[in-house]
Specification:
Length: 250
């Protein structure tokens, strides 16, 4: 059975609960929201490795990997970013090119539950973007990814824009949540695709402590993730940790 997932396109608006920031967002370079050497934990004033998204594909929630190798602001369109990278399902690694285009941008209103009242000098905002990626390569299983990405950012008193880590580590923390479809080249049937940083909201995998893999889906590419969480020092756990840290896109 295939899944059809339809996303709506809203242009020049703002997410609910925010004031319109669409006209302003074009003055910033947003590339570091999706690809950077490290992630700056603003509240902790330290760095950690940039997150690799977790993804689920199709009815069996097959593990889906995606890594951006390049994100460049398009000089012809300040709302569009030209991206390159690789996806992976099982042992199949597929290069892709495509775009991330900002369609909505907003700043949370003072006093809202998302406004960073405890972090003086910061403003917190949200983007909604259209993502279109075209996989290529020798494998016949390549396809097109299409959908909507929601990303959280914040701006400090010096007007610098950052990946929003002000609440890093709290229950349910997440960012860069994508919902859409993957469609094989030459096919009209699409499979539901979801991926995101640190968590998978609105899915069976989403949890206050981060990703929680339901047992029935472990065999669909999630075994190393599950084994890496054992913290028992056994060889199988060490092997799993190494696999989770492996830079498979190189």
């Amino acid at each position: 059975m295939s899944f059809i997932f339809v996303t709506a396109i809203h242009v020049h608006g703002q997410p609910a609960g925010t004031t319109n920031f669409y006209g302003n967002i074009k003055t910033y370079n947003l590339a570091a929201l999706w690809h950077a050497d490290h992630l700056r934990l603003l509240s902790l004033k330290e760095n950690e490795p940039f997150p690799e998204p977790y993804g689920i594909l199709g009815k069996n929630c097959q593990r889906f990997y995606i890594h951006y190798t390049s994100v460049v602001k398009d000089p012809a369109n300040p709302y569009r970013y030209q991206v390159q990278g690789k996806t992976r399902v099982g042992n199949q690694v597929r290069p892709f090119t495509g775009t991330i285009t900002v369609t909505q941008a907003g700043i949370y209103k003072p006093g809202s539950q998302y406004a960073p009242d405890t972090y003086k000098g910061y403003k917190r905002g949200k983007l909604i973007c259209r993502v279109t990626l075209n996989e290529s390569g020798s494998t016949p299983q390549s396809g097109v990814i299409d959908g909507e990405l929601t990303a959280d950012f914040c701006i400090n008193a010096q007007n610098q824009l950052f990946y929003d880590t002000l609440d890093f580590g709290i229950d349910g923390y997440q960012n860069n949540q994508f919902m859409g479809t993957w469609t094989a080249h030459g096919s009209k049937a699409s499979q539901k695709l979801q991926y995101g940083d640190f968590n998978l909201n609105d899915s069976a995998f989403g949890d206050v402590d981060g990703i929680n893999v339901p047992p029935q889906y472990e065999k669909y590419g999630w075994q190393s993730f599950v084994n890496s969480k054992a913290w028992d020092g056994k060889p199988i756990s060490k092997t799993a940790v190494a696999e989770e840290k492996r830079q498979w896109w190189k």
